[in-house]
Write a structure and sequence with these properties.
single chain; 9% strand
C-alpha cells in the first residue's frame, strides 16, 4: 500500500473526499484537479446527505456570495466569503450545496460510505482501519456477554460452595483449620525449614483439646503427601 497524506488525516474536507471518490488525488497537482462533473456530483451528494442528517460533519463553513469579477466569463465563477457555524444549527441545511463547505471525521465518513454502499469498493485513502462492521461488533459483544454471564455463574457457584463449606463445623474440621493457621500458612515449598514436624503439630492440637488420634488425623489431612515422613527436626513454638 503506497502511503499518501490522506492516510494520516483523522478529519477530511468534503472537497477532498469528493475528489478521492471521483478517482483523482487532489494532493497531486494536475490541470483537471477539482474539475469534472463526477467531482461536482460527489460534492453535492456529500453536502446534501449531511444536510439531511445522514452524515455528521465536525466543521461547517457557510459561504456568503461575493460580487462577480468584472471579466466576462462563461460560466461565471462563484466566489464566497466563508464563515464558520455550528453543525447543530439548521440554517446551513437549507442552503445550496455550492455555498457549503464541510469537514468530516474519517470514521464517520467511512461509516456513511459503508452503510450507503455496502458492496462498493471504497477508495483506500478514505478507509478507516479502526472501523468494525456493526454486525461483527454485535456478534462480538453478544459472545462477550455470554462468556461474562457464564463466568459470573461459575464464580457465584464457587462462592456459594465456599460459603457452604465455611458454614459447616465439626470437631475434626476445627482442628484442621487450627493446624493450617498455626503451621501451614507459613509453609514455603522451597524452604524445608518451614515444614512443621508431625510431633509438634500433634502436641499443639492436643493442647487445644484434640485426642491423639484426632490430632494425628488432622496432621495427615494438612500435610502434603511428599512430606508425610518429613518435618522439622527441631521443635518450633506455635504462632500463638
Amino acid at each position: 500500500m503506497a502511503i499518501s497524506p490522506w492516510h494520516l488525516l483523522s478529519v477530511i474536507r468534503c472537497d477532498d473526499a469528493a475528489a478521492l471518490l471521483a478517482d483523482f488525488d487532489p494532493a497531486v497537482r494536475t490541470v483537471d484537479s477539482y474539475t469534472g462533473r463526477l467531482y461536482d456530483e460527489w460534492r453535492r451528494v456529500l453536502v446534501e446527505e449531511a444536510q439531511a442528517g445522514h452524515l455528521r460533519p465536525v466543521k461547517v463553513l457557510v459561504g456568503d456570495e461575493l460580487e462577480p469579477c468584472s471579466e466576462v466569463l462563461d460560466p461565471q465563477p462563484m466566489f464566497f466569503s466563508w464563515r464558520e457555524v455550528s453543525p447543530d444549527e439548521d440554517d446551513w441545511r437549507q442552503q445550496s450545496f455550492e455555498g457549503i463547505s464541510l469537514s468530516f471525521e474519517r470514521a464517520e465518513l467511512y461509516r456513511w460510505l459503508k452503510k450507503s454502499m455496502p458492496e462498493a469498493e471504497i477508495p483506500e485513502a478514505l478507509r478507516d482501519v479502526s472501523w468494525t462492521e456493526p454486525q461483527v461488533l454485535d456478534q462480538a459483544q453478544r459472545r462477550f456477554s455470554e462468556a461474562e454471564e457464564h463466568d459470573t455463574d461459575d464464580f457465584s457457584r464457587s462462592i456459594e460452595s465456599q460459603q457452604s463449606f465455611s458454614a459447616h463445623e465439626s470437631e475434626g474440621l476445627r482442628y484442621v483449620k487450627e493446624a493450617i493457621e498455626q503451621f501451614w500458612d507459613t509453609y514455603d515449598p522451597d524452604d524445608l525449614s518451614t515444614v512443621p514436624s508431625k510431633r509438634e503439630v500433634v502436641e499443639h492440637l492436643q493442647k487445644q483439646g484434640a485426642t491423639k488420634n484426632l490430632a494425628m488425623a488432622a496432621d495427615l489431612v494438612c500435610r502434603p503427601r511428599k512430606l508425610q515422613k518429613s518435618g522439622l527436626k527441631q521443635n518450633r513454638m506455635p504462632i500463638r
